[in-house]
Design a protein that fits this description.
CATH superfamily of the largest domain: P-loop containing nucleotide triphosphate hydrolases
Largest sheet: 5 strands, parallel
Number of domains: 3
InterPro entries: AAA+_ATPase, AAA_lid_NorR, CheY-like_superfamily, P-loop_NTPase, Sig_transdc_resp-reg_receiver, Sigma_54_int, Sigma_54_int_dom_ATP-bd_1, Sigma_54_int_dom_CS
Protein name: Fis family transcriptional regulator
Number of helices: 21
CATH architecture of the largest domain: 3-Layer(aba) Sandwich
Number of strands: 14
Structural class: alpha/beta
GO molecular function: ATP binding
Strand order of the largest sheet: 2-1-3-4-5
Helix content: 40-55%
Shape: elongated
Strand content: 5-15%
CATH topology of the largest domain: Rossmann fold
GO biological process, one term: regulation of DNA-templated transcription
Distance between the termini: 49 Å
Keywords: ATP-binding, Nucleotide-binding, Phosphoprotein, Transcription, Transcription regulation
């Protein structure tokens, strides 16, 4: 904080606050409501100290209906990030708390205690720093995601993306299902981006990584003194996600007590901090995810059925990577672009044997396993193309001949050999052109042949450049 505004009728209070922050902050004093409004329009104020009497004067001058909520809203329109601290005497504490419920940051009591004022301002500074860090992390998250694959050649994934486009603009709760590493978190972000809340925060919570004793506090926040170690009030993830989307990953791991509170949020749209009795509005869209069978957990008594039905309004299953292998070349291209952006290397593709191994591997860890495998190989690779030596040998254990070669029983060895070579060439050229987005010059250079020879091979195997480019835009 750099600038503080003071608006109070008590000169002793005014002078005390000015004296407390004289060395650290630039202080401004308003002597009338008009002077305050004019000052807030021209001065980038970080914190406003204002007494109850002056708040009432400001409220009386509003054009619309008076009241704490309307007044706080007017102040926020001028200075959205400004902290508002109410100054109240002993008989006005309840009214000051009412202002806090309607958006004020905190209050201090008269007569002024310098230590209390410093503590209040320190808490506001910490909260502001926390919000800045969250904003930075969200911005970093969006930048990282800009390299993620959104194209697909898989009919299964096309249906998933169609469903995302349909459910995105609604308020409906979404339940994402699928194995670990299939991209549930990425899909949750896409739903958020296509929603009416896209300008609000996207808060991701990995429920399985939070101890059972802390999950309620993390999700819903806690009041000061709610439990041992709760030295100050802490906002929960639902509070931070206000106006946006909260993504609850591994939802099946949360405790029964947290399930009850989450059910209340979904049914009534309200919740309470741990140790608090004030209901808070949960203006949040919920997206949950699980890699376990929640229905089976309900039957086993490990998950509440009523909560399951509330979460399962719009279930969306993300297919495993081995069910969408046609997208592997697209993932390889996207990951290499990401690695090149954050490293000094410039690796442009993978060896045909590597691609063949990637296409035939089972991928128990799905997309996450593919990314980790490529990143490891990228670190080891010293050539412009990722070679088989940079990958673990087990990647190539499952490589087999094309299926239609093995079933041809009435054929000479020469015929089988010729057909096998042609099939390998066709697949190689198709993957090469996909990787290079149909660019003939780049594909020919990677293959080590001339553009004329590449065009002849494309004609031989009926590979159309326009069709390949069109498939990438799907």
């Amino acid at each position: 904080m750099d600038s503080i505004f003071i608006f109070t009728r008590n000169p002793c209070t005014r002078d005390t606050i000015r004296r407390i922050f004289a060395d650290a902050y630039q202080t401004h004093v308003a002597s009338s409501t008009d002077q305050l409004w004019a000052g807030l329009k021209t001065i980038a104020c970080d914190c406003l100290f204002i007494d109850l009497a002056q708040m009432e004067s400001l409220a009386a001058g509003l054009d619309g209906p008076p009241g704490p909520k309307a007044l706080i809203g007017q102040l926020r329109q001028l200075r959205p990030m400004m902290a508002i601290v109410i100054i109240a005497a002993g008989n006005g504490i309840r009214q000051a708390v009412n202002y806090m419920k309607n958006g004020a940051s905190n209050y201090i009591a008269e007569p002024i205690d310098p230590e209390e004022v410093r503590l209040v301002l320190d808490e506001i500074s910490r909260d502001r720093l926390q919000q800045s860090e969250l904003a930075y992390l969200r911005e970093r998250l969006w930048q990282d995601d800009s390299l993620d694959v959104v194209q697909t050649l898989s009919p299964l994934m096309k249906k998933v993306y169609d469903s995302v486009m349909s459910v995105g603009p609604t308020k409906t709760t979404v339940l994402l299902l699928g194995e670990t590493g299939t991209g549930k978190s990425f899909m949750a972000k896409r739903i958020h981006r296509h929603s009416n809340r896209k300008n609000g925060p996207f808060i991701s919570v990995h429920c399985g990584a939070i101890p059972e004793t802390l999950i309620e506090s993390e999700l819903f926040g806690h009041e000061k003194g709610a439990f041992t170690g709760a030295h100050r009030r802490k906002p929960g993830r639902f509070e931070v996600a206000f106006g946006g989307t909260i993504f609850l990953d591994e939802i099946g791991t949360i405790s029964m007590a947290a399930q009850v509170k989450l059910l209340t949020v979904l049914q009534e749209g309200i919740y309470q901090r741990v140790g608090g009795d004030q209901p808070l509005n949960a203006n949040v869209r919920v997206i949950a995810a699980s890699n376990t069978d929640l229905k089976a957990m309900c039957e086993a008594g490990q998950f509440r059925k009523d909560l399951y039905y509330r979460l399962n309004v719009f279930p969306l299953t993300i297919p495993q990577l081995h069910d969408r292998k046609e997208d592997i070349p697209l993932f390889v291209d996207a990951f290499l672009k990401r690695f090149n952006q954050f490293n000094t290397k410039n690796i442009q593709g993978v060896h045909p044997d590597v691609m063949n191994g990637l296409l035939n591997y089972v991928w128990p860890g799905n997309i996450r396993e593919l990314e980790n495998l490529l990143e490891r190989a990228y670190i080891l690779e010293n050539s412009p193309i990722m070679m088989p030596d940079s990958f673990p040998p087990e990647l190539f254990d499952s490589v087999a001949l094309p299926a239609d070669i093995t079933i041809r029983q009435v054929a000479t060895l020469a015929e089988v050999r010729k057909h096998g070579i042609e099939e390998i060439e066709r697949r190689y050229l198709q993957e090469l052109l996909l990787r290079n987005k149909g660019r003939i010059n780049a594909s020919a250079a990677e293959a080590g042949v001339g553009t004329r020879q590449l065009n002849k091979l494309m004609h031989k195997y009926r590979l159309d450049k326009a069709a390949i480019k069109k498939s990438l835009k799907v």
